[in-house]
Amino acid sequence: MALYKNNTELFQVRRGILGFVYKFLDQIKNCFRSCGRGGKFSLFTNRGLLFCAFVLAVLCLISLAAFGLGMHFHGKLEPSMLPWREMRKDIIAHDVPDRPTKKPRRQRFFPCEVAFKDSVDLLSEPKDFLNFTHFSLGYMETEKKASHIDAHEPRFGGHQTLEEREQSFFAVNQTVHCGFVRGAEGFPSTGFDLEEEDRKYTSACRVVVSSCIFGSSDFLRRPTSRLMSEYSKKNVCFVMFVDEETLSTLSKEGNAPDDGGFVGLWKLVVVKNLPYTDMRKTGKVPKFLSHRLFPSSRYSIWLDSKLRLATDPMLIIDHFLWQTGSEYAISNHYTRHCVWDEVLQNKRLNKYNHTAIDEQFSFYQSDGLTKFDPSDPNTPLPSYVPEGSFIVRAHTPMSNLFSCLWFNEVDRFTSRDQLSFAFTFLKLKRMNPDKPFHLNMFKDCERRSLVKLFHHREPYVPPPPKIS
User: Fold this and answer.
1) β-strand 451-453 against 307-309: which pairing, if any?
2) Are 190 and 183 in contact (CB under 8 A)?
3) What is the biggest distance separating any 2 CA atoms in the chain, rounded to whole angstroms?
4) How far is CA 267 from the centre of its chain?
5) Which residues contact 201 (CB under 8 A, 6 or more apart)?
6) Domain extents for the chain?
7) pLDDT of 402-441, one tens digit each?
8) Residue 171: closest CA among 327, 391, 400, 381
9) 59 exposure class (CB count in 10 Å sphere: 0-12, 13-18, 19+)
10) From CA 325, how far away is CA 343, in angstroms rounded?
11) What sequence ranges are listed for the domain TOD1/MUCI70 glycosyltransferase-like (predicted)?
């Protein structure tokens, strides 16, 4: 072990970094001694200054290496001895707020090719196409005055008892509740009133494309006129049901109807005295009950107001009804196929009151609703959850009955019609084993090829009042 004498004391000098540091410190002292002498600087002094500068630079580099870059220490360190890099991380973790995590990208869905015929000129309705299950279906027009309803206010859907509900699922000659139920004599209308001129127009339609906007909830999406055949423009009724508030909003946005009530291909029909305060439930009236609003129609197509029709309606009827021998066509949901999943999703997104959803779902389970099993080859439908924004139907007795039954479930329970679709279909099928209902549940990607999808209008939020 080498010895180094300093200030008359002997120190053990370790060979390595510490010995090197001690040696440099002594050199610095010698530098200052030489610089402190009077007179002119000698050549030795100039060299000493350069050497001192070099020594200071080396000390700075050693300091950075030891503390700035985090030296490796053996043994357990006290918190106060943590390298600066780790201390800096700890400071940042406590003083800087976490950056918001990016939302996962929403899964995208794309259209798929649909083999439409090249022209409507090549279309012809199959012979005896409407020769499906036949029975006479009547509709409850006025509420019967009885003791059990005396205390009830008149309702658009009527006051259907559970016994009447059960009997309505039989495909037999009968009169069923199907909306538009008026109160007993002396009571006013229960809602969805049309002007007489509009009523005459809708009563004459044979093929219909319909939609609705209530409560200014959406923009007006005009069908793509250049994609519509001249035949459809002349023979198909394009009817958009609106309330007075929506009509006013559309007019301010440059969509005021002409003297005939038209905006492009849409015939705007104003509905007065809306039957429900829930605009979503009011929208189910034209969605399900087109056979009642258009009593002479043979076919109808429903599309939600967020969709713009981009395919000729006669090509749609031919492809989804005539070529498949179906009387009702609706697409499956793009992600969910079991009602159990749909219930959870509605509650997760707070689409409706959770208690009301639970009551409806419990009622359906007690009445025979089972989970969707995709592995079962005898499953009657490819999905128990529809994407209900697009519906194609022939106005046959079975199709009309199914529409009434589905509407009655929405009227009785929640407006979330995807919750009641599977139950309604399965119960109708179960109670009429010898009377088939020809339903075509097609792929959602096909629906996307028929229309252009938009988002609904964002609800208007008034600005906060200015503080003077």
Assistant:
1) antiparallel
2) yes
3) 130
4) 28
5) 237, 267, 269
6) 1-35+49-68, 120-371+381-453
7) 999 999 999 999 999 999 999 999 999 999 999 999 999 9
8) 400
9) middle
10) 32
11) 137-456
